């Protein structure tokens, strides 16, 4: 199990999400891992929260305030050895952009295994980007 980040607050947040995503939906991961079962199998659950922003912010200022908050966070002083503060999703978007341009890197063994399966199925693979 990954350890929660952020000390007691992170632990509390982790427990809250496990309760909502796992226990509420009947797919608790922690009870299987930490309980009598002591499961080591990979497990997954999910939580989707949908909110009507206008119900909370009828003035329409939410997105502007969220952008301001993001700008403030990105402008905080950097720790030594760091060039930038990344917000959730930024690294993934950059990786997606790069992979759309350059392709998805695959180890040679994986590519060769895919070729073997494709040949057996009569499928022509695309030419790899180099």
Which structural traits does this protein have?
mainly alpha; 0% strand; single chain; 130 residues; 6 helices; extended
Low-pLDDT residue spans: none
Instruction: State the helicity in percent bands.
Output: 40-55%
The structural class is: mainly alpha
**SSE order, one letter for each helix or strand:** HHHHHH
Topology record:
Elements: H1 7-23, H2 30-34, H3 53-56, H4 62-74, H5 90-102, H6 108-121
Question: What can you see in these coordinates?
Answer:
The protein has helices spanning 7-23, 30-34, 53-56, 62-74, 90-102, 108-121. The mean pLDDT is 90. With 130 residues, it is mainly alpha-helical. The protein is built from six helices and no strands. The chain starts with 6 loop residues before the first helix and ends in a 9-residue tail after the last helix. Helices cover 51% and strands 0% of the residues. It has a domain at 1-50.
Short description:
This protein is an all-alpha fold. The protein has helices at residues 7-23, 30-34, 53-56, 62-74, 90-102, 108-121.
């Amino acid at each position: 199990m990954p350890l929660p980040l952020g000390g007691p607050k992170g632990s509390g947040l982790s427990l809250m999400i496990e309760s909502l995503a796992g226990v509420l939906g009947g797919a608790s991961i922690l009870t299987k891992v930490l309980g009598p079962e002591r499961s080591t199998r990979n497990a997954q659950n999910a939580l989707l929260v949908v909110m009507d922003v206008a119900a909370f912010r009828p003035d329409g200022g939410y997105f502007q305030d969220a952008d301001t908050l993001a700008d403030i966070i990105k402008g905080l002083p950097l720790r030594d050895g760091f060039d930038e503060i990344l917000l959730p999703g930024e690294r993934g978007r950059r990786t997606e952009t790069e992979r759309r341009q350059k392709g998805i890197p695959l180890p040679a063994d994986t590519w060769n295994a895919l070729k073997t399966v494709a040949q057996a199925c009569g499928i022509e693979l695309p030419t790899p980007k180099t």
